[in-house]
Amino acid sequence: MHWITLTLALGALAGCRSFVAADGGSDTALPLVVDAHVHAAMRLVSGPATSLVDGQGGGQLDAERARRGGLRIAFSAALLGAWEDGDPEVLAQRQFAAVAAQQAAAPDRLALARTPDEAQAQALGGRLVLVHALENGRDLDDDLAPLKRYRDAGVRMLSLVHSSSNNLADSGGDAARWQGLSPLGARAIAEANSLGLWVDLSHASEATILAAARQTRAPLIASHTAAAALVPDNPANLSDTAIRAIADSGGLVCVFFGSEALVRGYLPQARDIKREVVAELHARGIDLSSQEAEAFAAAEFDRRLPRASVADVADHIAHVVRIAGAQHACLGSDFDGIGPTAARGLEDVAAYPALFDELRRRGLDENAIAAVAGGNLLRTWRVVLARAGRGAAADH
Q1: N or C: which end of the chain has fewer CB within 10 A?
Q2: Structural element, H or E, at residue 71
Q3: How much is the average pLDDT of 315-331?
Q4: Could you tell me the CATH superfamily of domain 3-13+28-388?
Q5: Is 137:160 a contact under the CB 8 Å cutoff?
C-alpha cells in the first residue's frame, strides 16, 4: 500500500551484528538498522518538496530522524505503478535522480551505495545510506536489456510485480495470467541472479513465489509483507508455505509497518476511506500530494479506523521467526509509502527502538534483534552478489 501513489491512482479512477551509539547520551547501543523497503525516491517526485536531511516538507524518512532511530541503510524503491503512463526507465531514472540530487547536496549526511561493504562503511561514517531498488518489473521486453541498465544505474533489488499482474508474473492482488511466473519472468530471474539484482517477491502471488523459489540460484526476498496466518484478508501477506519457500532459498521475509497488512479487516475499510478522502480533497480543491492533504488523510484515518500497534508488528515478526527462524526475518517498513496507515508508535524512522524494546519483552536476545534489525539483510545481500560472480558485484 502506497498512500501517495494509491491516492493518485484512485483519483484517476475516480550474520553481521553491528551497533550504533544511542541518541541522547544513553548507554544502550542501538542495533544498526537496515530497512529493506522505503519510498524516499517516490516521495521526492510525487509529494511536496522534502529534505532527506532534516525532514523539512514532511515525510517519514530523513537523516536526522534516522540517526535517532538507528537507521543507517535503506533500500529506496522507485515504484513503477501499473497506472502510470510513460517509459518505465524514464520514470525510474527520474526517481533515482531525485535521490542523487539530495545526496550530492549533503554528502556529509547522505550516501548512495552499491555493495554491502560500501554501505556499511558509509553508515559507520555517520551517513544515512540509500540503495536504489526498483518496484515492479513491468514492461520488460524479451531481451531483458533494461535489467543491466538498471544494475549499472545502481539498482540492487528488483521486485517482479506490484498490485497488477504483468508480463513477468502474477500479483497476489490481481487475477492470474500465468499461474505464477511467465516464461519471460523465469528468464528475468535468471538474468537478475547473474547481474546481482536481488529478486523481491513482495506483492507476488503464492504460485509466483513457489515458481521463483524453484527457479532462483540466489536468495530471494519479500521486502515488505506480513503473515497471512495472522491477517488473511490482505493479498500481499504471505502464507506459511510462501514464507518457508523464501527461507529455503536462503532468503528473507521483511515485515511491513502499515496497518492494512497487520490488522484483520483494516484493508477493506481503508480502501473505502481512501476513496472518500480523495473525493473530499478533490471537492475542496486540495492537491493530493500536498502536506495539507496528508494531514487531512491522517486525521480521517485516525478518526475512523484504529491503526495497528507496535505489538502487532512484533506479532508478525515473531510469526516469521517461528516459521522460518530469526535468520530469515527482517524489516521492510515502507516508510514514505504507508503514510497515515503506519502502526501507532512506528510513525517514522526515529521509532525503530520502540519495536526492539517490544521484541526484547518477548524474549528475543540481542543477537536475534541485531539480525532482524539489519544483520540478516547485509549478510544475505553479500550472498546474492557472490552468487552473481565477482564481476557483477565488483565492477559496478
Answers
A1: C
A2: strand 71-79
A3: 98
A4: Metal-dependent hydrolases (3.20.20.140)
A5: yes
List the Cα angle 263/41/381 in 5-degree steps: 75
| Residue 379 grid cell | 549478510
Number of Cβ atoms within 10 Å of the Cβ of 15: 12
- 1 grid coordinates: 500500500
- Mean pLDDT value of segment 70-79: 97
Q: Tell me the C-alpha distance between 344 and 325, whole Å.
A: 26
d(CA 176, CA 165): 7
Whether the CB-CB separation of 220 and 299 falls below 8 Å is answered with no
Q: How is the chain split into domains, by residue range? A: 3-13+28-388
CB 308 within 8 A of CB 266: yes
Q: Which three cell numbers stand for residue 49?
A: 518538496
d(CA 161, CA 5): 15
- pTM for the structure as a whole: 0.89
Cell 552499491 sits on residue: 114
Residue 307 Rama label (left phi>0; alpha psi -120 to 50; beta): beta
Listed in sequence order, the DSSP H helices in the chain are 3-13, 40-46, 63-69, 88-105, 116-124, 145-152, 183-195, 206-215, 240-248, 259-262, 266-284, 291-304, 310-324, 352-361, 366-370, 376-388, 390-394
Q: How far apart are CA 350 and CA 328, in angstroms?
A: 24
What are the residues whose beta carbons fall under 8 Å from the beta carbon of 393, sequence distance 6 or more? 115, 196, 385, 386
Give the C-alpha separation, 206 to 240, whole Å.
10
Q: What is the largest CA-CA distance in the chain?
A: 56
Q: Which three cell numbers stand for residue 137?
A: 518489473
pLDDT tens digits along 237-253: 999 999 999 999 999 99
Q: Residue 21 has which C-alpha cell?
A: 551509539
| pLDDT bracket for residue 211 (50, 70, 90) | very high
